[in-house]
Queue: 4 jobs
Job 1
Amino acid sequence: MEILEVCRRYGSTGGNIGEMQQLTKDDVYRMASEGEYVALLSYIGDLESFSQTMERCIGNGLHLAGYPGDTGSGNYVLNANGYLVVNREAEHLDVIREYIALLLDYENQFTVYGNSVRRDVIRDCVVQDEYGGGLWQKKGKFGDTDVTSELTLKADGTSYLEEYMAYLESCVPQPEYPSGISAILLEELLPYFEGDKSVEDTVRILQNRVQLYLDEGN
């Protein structure tokens, strides 16, 4: 109930959408540190985006945390492009195994622009510039040439690699609500946020409808 009340109390005070879209990430983190936002949603794609997020958090007195929950870290893995799934009853499983092995091959995992699923590749993607001494991240390949980008580093010149590896270990697949439950939430929360229903009635109806949905075996 408390979360719903906070969302309704402060949600209507948000700025103009057009103006908000003009804000830079630095602006948003600064505004969060000044108390204008309760929380920020961070999508982390690779070591560099993690490093930038950590740098902005530290610089603004913020902390990287997962979604609130009773267990676990609250850090979730998601893939907007979907996942490769193989039916165990599929034909030509030997060919499929070879294909998956090729996808996960050490050298091929260097071509996925920082999104490798292999821990050894993630570590080996961090290389030192032989001239300037800085740290770079291998992002992929352009022909036979490595594509690299300079890493955001800590104040002492070291990388956020170990923190990133620990973060990855804490991540679990993002849970998905059944579409029926999502529809119930949307239907019942809308009148609450419009001020037409009390928080007590909203929570009671939500609990009853979701429980009925689950009892029916959906």
Job 2
Amino acid sequence: MLLASFKCEQKELPLVYEEENTGAKYLTSGKLEFPEFGLDNPIEDLPSPFAWASGKGEVKSFKDWEKRRNEISAMIQYYETGTKPVTDRENIEARMSGDTLFVDVTVNGQTLSLFSRIFYPDTDVPGPYPIMIGSSRMSLPREIFTERPIALMDFNERQVCNYGQWGPHDSRGSYSFDRLFPELEANGAYIEWAWGFSRIIDGLQILGPE
């Protein structure tokens, strides 16, 4: 468990932000530099998540955290997963067919169509409802949600990248994600799946309450 206390400069946080990453400017500023690590210099102790990568000081305010969380994200993408590309909302189209959300994403002249069904709660409580978005192997039992005013959505991440430890799958460079971003074929599956989840969320926000 992480416990932290720092000054919050904003009295009430919005439930929904209009952009995916309000601190994206820190990722493109060119000011984030990370050292190279090898097996000969392991980090044995878990570092504080609130300490700057430079080792000079820690987060002191909510505004600082906007920068620090992007620093953490950049480190994960640099050392582990590969890059999560930014996708403009204008390149995304969304529509509903029954209870299924369809999202078309067009990048570099290539279109990837994603879909995900929404399961509405069996409750007398009127909407709108918060929504729990899970992957194809979501481990949480549905009983936790079915009698509460919470909607469910199952997103099959294999629509983006069908890598898996079991069964057949495409090879690196041949995933659906790679058609849109061939320059990122060295990416790991986790970051590509995360990109797909973000596009589903884009679709929900584009359509708004229905």
Job 3
Amino acid sequence: MHHHITFIVLLLLGVVNLTAQNKPSTGENQTYQSGEKLTYSLKYGFIKGGYISFTVKDTLWEGTHTQELKLFAKTSGMVDAIFKVRDTYISYIDPTSDQPLKSVRDIREGRYKYYNEVTYDYTTLHDDSITIHSKKSGNVRVPPTIHDIVSAFYYARRYKFNDAMKVGDILEFTTYFSDEIFPLKIKYMGNERISTASEIESVIFFIP
């Protein structure tokens, strides 16, 4: 199976703005809510490379209240002229469990293009697995705690990113990525303060 894991995906779990984190572990989700938008600029020295935006909005999927979590990545300037990137990842999640119901991956990187949709059927739970349906490969049995790459990020924000983390801690997630089960591991590197266009922000750093 071809893995096309770009720097865009790795940056997805690379830095988190602490000002967006309230980090409750139970009850109503106050960590992220509909209307939130986070935008990160990508720079290489003085060269602007592009940006990544994360958005959250309430929506309906098959008549059910869900949250749409969207990641959009775009190169710009000189980088765009050399290697154009237009990546979109969308996850529709159950707002009570934070588990994905549907995932969309639309990748355009240079000449490479990839599109797939995956739906998750939790009513098929049996022998510690559920059935998901991929438009590319059909039905697949996966662990019931499966995430897509975007829902894993928001799940970590709500339940994993907290004051109990220690530098060097490794967070592990089972994800369905590039049409196969993909074990995602990220290492907590500590908190830092960085300058933004408007103020100094506290952020959490990870490496994949």
Job 4
Amino acid sequence: MNANIAALQAKYDTRRSLRDRLERDALRMAALPSAAVPADLSDAQREALDDLRTLQSGLLDAQAKLTERADLLSTLKGSVGAKQAYLARLRDRARSLAAAAASGDTDAKTAQIAVLTALAQDATNAQTALAQLVASAMVRDGAAGAWSLPVRGVLTQPFGPTSFELEPPATYKGVSYAHFHAAIDLAAPLGTPVTAASDGVVAFVGHLPDGAMIVLIAHAGGYVSEYAHLDDTFALPPVKAGQAVNAGQVIGFIGLTGITTGAHLHFAVMKDRAPIDPLGLLQAP
């Protein structure tokens, strides 16, 4: 009895080993180019090989789609989280203003100042986070390429000192300013495509602490360009960190994310971490 069981077990092990070997051989053969497939295969074997290749191709496509969807889901989760945090801050500030307005003029003015101070702090936090991202994105090798405007729109705020109190303080060319706009703002309709201003590599896609969706692109020669307030609801930026992009390639769409008074692109360029006027760069020979 025991001998019969042992014989059956040995036969099973042999067949399993043969099956495993056949599967390995089939997978190896499926990976071969058509010209390298043995010519003595029967029609049935060739048909089975074609079926296996089709199955492998389908599995690879499905895996790629799952990875793409996982990346999209991760980005959407980040967008939702940023919006929830931003809406929570707005709700708290609205409640503060409403309560102060009910108490009297003095309390209302105090609350308004507090809200403006909080908004300014959001802007400062965003600038700090941006500076850290820019520092990690710099590329010094190679010569800088040609530059162009990333979107055709109306210039609503130029580069330089400003009276807008939400802009953070800055020192530019040795002069300190209470409020400084280290970019240009270009107004355009929601959903307008935004393109890379020059050839480069995407260094960051995501949100700043103030909720703004941004794309950072590192360029040769120590340049980094920033595209802020991009849409993160209807059309996410179609690029990823580490992706090479060409000048004129779509990298996002006009949105209303972060601290913004209307649909526009906040376009900034840094050279060796220092902000420069993008218009001056565009006009340079």
